[in-house]
Structures are given as C-alpha cells and as structure tokens.
Amino acid sequence: MTNNTETVINAIDIVRTYKVDNLEVHALRGVSFCVNTGEFIGLIGRSGSGKTTLLNIIGGLDRPTSGEVWVYDNDITRLSDRHLTDFRRNKVGFIFQSFALLPTMSAFENVELPMRMVGKSLRERRQRVMECLDMVGLTKWAKHRPQEMSGGQQQRVAIARALVNRPGLILADEPTGELDTATSQTIFELFKNITHHENVAIVMTSHDPAAEQYMTYTYRMADGRITNERTA
Ligand code: ADP
Ligand code: MG
Fold first, then answer.
1. In terms of DSSP bridges, do strands 201-206 and 217-222 run parallel, antiparallel, or are they unpaired?
2. β-pairing, 169-173 with 92-96?
3. Which atom of ligand 1 lies nearest, measured to the CA of 46?
4. How far apart are CA 149 and CA 141, in angstroms?
5. How far apart are CA 142 and CA 147, in angstroms?
6. Taking the alpha carbons of 20, 205, 170, 30 in that order, is the dihedral positive or negative?
7. CATH number, domain at 207?
8. 25 lines ligand 1 (CB under 6 A)
9. 20: Cα separation from own chain's centroid
C-alpha cells in the first residue's frame, strides 16, 4: 500500500516573468502550493490569471524565472533539458482543452503512443492500453478514430493516454473547455474516481465553478497570485 498523504508537488515562490519587446509581463508573482497523492486539485481563475503558466512549469514544459518546484525528491527547475524531458515522459500525463489526439490513429493507437515512446513491449502495451480504455469506459471504441467519436469520448481517450504510463501526476488544462455542461460533469466525476483508484494526483485548471464540488481542494488565482491559503 502507498501512503495517501505523500507529497507529489511542493512549489515554492514561483515567479514567471515574460519579456515582450522591452516590457515585462508578470505571469506569476510568487506562487506556492502543494499537491498530495490521491488529490484532485483545482486551479480556478479568470483568463490571464496565470493558470496555464503554472501548470506548464509544474509539468516541466516551461521553467520559472525563480522559485523551486519539488516533485517527489527532485527540484525539477534544476534538471537539465534531457532529464526534464525524461521526467515529463515518465512521471507526468498531460490533458489539453483541444484533446490533441492524432486523427489518423485509432483510440487504441493514441493511448498506446506514450508507451511506445518509453519503449514498452507489445505485450505490456496491449494489456495496459485496454486497461486504461476500460477505466474511461471506451473498451468498445478501441478501433475507432477520433472523428468517429463525440467530444466527451475524445477527451476520455486523452485521459486514458495520460494514464497509460502510470504517472504520479496528471495535469489537465481546461479539459472541459470545449464540452457541454453535462459532459463536463462526467469528466470531473471520472477525474475524481481516477484519483481514488489509481495512485495519482490530478491538477486541473478551469473557470467552471461547477468543477469545485468534485475537488479535494481548489486554489484560486488572480493576477499571477494564489489568493487563498491552504491550511489542510
Ligand atoms: P491563464 O491560463 O489563466 O489564462 P496564462 O498563464 O496563459 O493565464 O497567462 C498569464 C499571463 O501571462 C497573461 O497576461 C498572458 O498574456 C501572459 N503570457 C502567457 N504566456 C506568455 C508568453 N509566452 N509570452 C508573453 N506573455 C505570456
Ligand atoms: Mg490558460
């Protein structure tokens, strides 16, 4: 058994400043937050508040101007580019608003891709891909291409793909931005179930207040800051 209170992320005083021409854009002005295994954590805030910037830094897609990002025992801001790429491939699953599925590939092949990239055997891939499609309720859709599926189904393929390498952390940036209210709620429900049943933490950005009832904790963001303090 793994300990459910294990800290997955501890981000300390993250600053991210973009230089645009000669102007500085302060996307993050000193953000600290933490996420534990099994938690479904929300980042809620208006457009431009810094949600995507923060998510990209936690996932090793971007580097902060200053601050530390501890993921388990590593400060990922100190990793070389090569080690950061390894970290992303093995430890993090990403989910985007636009689903980002490959249109010429079946659901099975889309989910399988991250396992190919880390060199898993065919036998292991078949077993794990079907397990993940089952988890998102799409076993019967394995051979279908994205354009034959609804938006909600496509996002569930993307969720299966994010889970396939058993990451400790899944980052979802506005995953329901293109889905209707009812479908969005089934996705939030699925995330909640996944954090309970898989050994994973999920951090999701959203501006949908309906998401909050599914979450372990919600951080609110405004103007590059977190405005509520987490005490528990
Ligand atoms: P959110 O995801 O909450 O909408 P973002 O993290 O995308 O917010 O953006 C936060 C701020 O940083 C915004 O003011 C945005 O314009 C700015 N920003 C984001 N990415 C860049 C970039 N690559 N170059 C310059 N400014 C950026
Ligand atoms: Mg964003």
1. unpaired
2. parallel
3. 3
4. 8
5. 13
6. positive
7. 3.40.50.300
8. yes
9. 27
Q: Is residue 89 part of a domain?
A: yes
19 assigned to some structural domain: no
Q: Whose CA is nearest to atom 5 of ligand 1?
A: 50
Within a 10 A sphere around the Cβ of 71, how many other Cβ atoms?
22
Number of domains in the chain: 1
State how far the Cα of 71 lies from the Cα of 130, in Å rounded to an integer: 29
Q: Write the CB contacts of 225 (distance below 8 Å, at least 6 apart in sequence).
A: 28, 29, 30, 31, 50
Say if residues 122 and 153 touch (Cβ distance below 8 Å). Answer: no
Q: Is residue 196 part of a domain?
A: yes
| Domain presence at residue 9 | no
Tell me if 182 CB under 6 Å of ligand 1.
no
Nearest ligand 1 atom, CA 47: 4
φ, ψ for residue 160 (rounded to 5)?
-60, -40
Taking the whole predicted model, whether its pTM rises above 0.85 is answered as yes
* Cβ of 16 below 6 Å from ligand 1: no
Per-residue pLDDT of the chain (232 residues; tens, 9 = 90+): 444 578 999 999 999 999 999 999 999 999 999 999 999 999 999 999 999 999 999 999 999 999 999 998 899 999 999 999 999 988 999 999 999 999 999 999 999 999 999 999 999 999 999 999 999 999 999 999 999 999 999 999 999 999 999 999 999 999 999 999 999 999 999 999 999 998 899 999 998 888 999 999 999 999 999 999 887 6
